[in-house]
Amino acid sequence: MVSAPQSLTEVRARIDALDDELIRLLADRQRLVRTAAIFKTDEQAVRAPGRVEQVVELARDRATAAGLEPAVAEAVWRAMIGAFINLELDEHATRQRGSQGSGGDAAESTGLDGDSTGSVRLSAR
């Protein structure tokens, strides 16, 4: 078992190490999301509200088993899923424009924009 941190600096270093791992895992998830987007034909398939609820419920169950507050897991998963749905919608729209002869390529980088509801929207930079 890992010993308890002995200072705020050590706590922060451990959090930073976890954040590095989370970023790597999110990049892996993004690759899979982009692959899944290829199989989806319309916006409803991208949004898939039933699947969202299934994934959120599974995250809550896993959180409980791991000692994470289920409400924290739900909030994180809903934000993450929302951001990935927006990425898929943007890529779907880009593919649609490309298939109509405009030849648009998917944006290489994206940024996050919030709206008044707290939703996160990916936008090309």
From TrEMBL:
- In Gene Ontology terms, what is one molecular function of this protein? chorismate mutase activity
Q: Keywords of this protein's UniProt record, alphabetized?
A: Coiled coil, Isomerase
Q: Where is the Chorismate mutase domain?
A: 2-92
Q: Which residues form a coiled coil?
A: 8-35
Q: Where is this region: Disordered?
A: 94-125
- Here the segments flagged for biased composition (Polar residues) are 116-125
Q: Name one GO biological process term.
A: chorismate metabolic process
Q: Which SUPFAM superfamilies match?
A: Chorismate mutase II
Which InterPro entries does the UniProt entry name for this protein?
Chorismate_II_sf (IPR036263), Chorismate_mutase-related (IPR051331), CM_dom_sf (IPR036979), CM_II_prokaryot (IPR002701)
Q: What is the protein name given in its UniProt record?
A: Chorismate mutase
